[in-house]
Amino acid sequence: MLFRSDLARTRQAPLILVRVAPIDPPPDMFGFAVGDMSRERDLAGAYIERLVQRMHKENPALQVRGEVLSGGASRGLLEAQAEHSPQLTIITSHGRTGLSRMFRGSVTEDILRGSHSTTLVLWPWSLPDDASLGPDHPSSVRNEPVTLGRTILVPLDGSARTARILPEAFRMARDADGQINLITVLDLASMTVHRARDLEHAIVRALEDRARVIRDAGVPTKVDVIVSADVAGSLVTHASASRADLVAMTTHARGSIGKFVFGSVANRVASRVSRPVLFTPPFDGEVSYDALYPDVPASVLDLASLAHDVSHI
Predict the structure, then answer these.
(1) What is the per-residue burial (b if ≥16 Cβ within 10 Å, else e) of 180-194?
(2) φ, ψ of residue 151 in degrees (nearest 5)
(3) pLDDT for 255 beyond 50
(4) How many CB atoms lie within 10 A of CB 196?
(5) Which of 27, 142, 157, 178 allows an S-S link to 150, with CB 3.0 to 4.6 Å?
(6) How many whole angstroms separate alpha carbon 130 and alpha carbon 2?
(7) What does the alpha-carbon distance between residue 207 and residue 185 come to, in Å, rounded to a whole number?
């Protein structure tokens, strides 16, 4: 909870803690009860209330409140998003696979499919839980804020859709006194040597132009171009090698094709990278970036709708 409260305080934004309790207990599976949910709402309410009181005590100036909703988790959270229009939604994915995933589904996937706001996905292993450190750890360790954004990896594929993430990545890096790493992975196997070379040089120039804009706005930015047929694997490897503490990506499709609806590369990266992942949906139609990011320089906002110009190649 330290990270959530620090982020809300930094942005001077209210923090809403939401938990969804099912209305009815789930059916038995193969003769075994999945769980007793009859007291779930009462337990959820008590849990949220404890968190709110704790955060009020630790951060008196923080605007924080809790809500307990009833029904399906995915639908409830999406309805809460629609009601509050949050600047950022933070969820923790259980990373379930196999039977557990089949029984309970993936709330994370549902949120990313239906969300119209930026979502930060935290894997259970990606951030320390201060409550789990135990009484033997010094209080300074338990209470030290967890900061994301010191090094943000931003994959771009040359389209304006993936550039949509740049204002949010800029904001996260700026607030953490961090840096941004713009990266493009090129699969040039099917191209002639000369065209592959020209395309790689053009992409480097395009990324450097964007990096210069972000640097001039106050956030250090570096550029990497990797030539590989394994786009997702290269991004995962680079995230580890560069010690990025956050991967920032734009979701793609909103259709029903595929297990994940936000693009196969994003799917593979998100499922394999051992870092939190920041997702933002590609807005359809006209978008007022000034209204969404009033604290982000106009020069950076312009990048959100700017595709690589490689038409001369």
Answers:
(1) bbbbbbbeeeeeeee
(2) -140, 110
(3) no
(4) 16
(5) 178
(6) 8
(7) 12
CB 182 within 8 A of CB 166: no
- State how far the Cα of 206 lies from the Cα of 223, in Å rounded to an integer: 10
The pTM assigned to this predicted structure is: 0.75
Helix (H, G, I), strand (E, B) or coil at 26: coil
pLDDT digits (tens, 9 = 90+) for 54-65: 888 888 888 888
* Distances from the Cα of 105 to the Cα of 21, 44, 93, 110, 312, angstroms: 15, 20, 11, 9, 46
Rounded Cα distance, 284 and 121, in Å = 22
pLDDT digits (tens, 9 = 90+) for 107-156: 777 777 777 778 888 866 555 444 433 444 333 333 444 568 899 999 98
User: Judging by beta carbons within 10 Å of its beta carbon (0-12, 13-18, 19+), is residue 23 exposed, middle or buried?
Assistant: exposed
- Least Cα distance to 80 among 48, 115, 52 occurs for 115
Does pLDDT of 260 surpass 80?
A: no
| Residue 71 one-letter amino acid | G
For 69, what's the count of Cα atoms within 13 Å in the CB-facing half-sphere? 17
Rounded CA-CA distance 279/262 in Å is: 9
**Rounded distance between C-alpha atoms, residue 82 and residue 71, angstroms:** 16
Q: How far is CA 279 from CA 19, 108, 143, 222, in A?
A: 21, 11, 27, 21
Could you report the per-residue pLDDT of 209-222, keeping only the tens digit for each?
999 999 999 999 99
What SS3 class is residue 162? helix
Structure tokens at 71: 């029904």
Residue among 13, 60, 18, 17 at smallest CA distance from 175: 13
Examine the pLDDT at 12 and tell me if it is beyond 50.
yes
Q: Which of 49, 76, 77, 81 is nearest to 65 (CA)?
A: 49
* Contact in structure between 19 and 51 (CB atoms under 8 Å): no
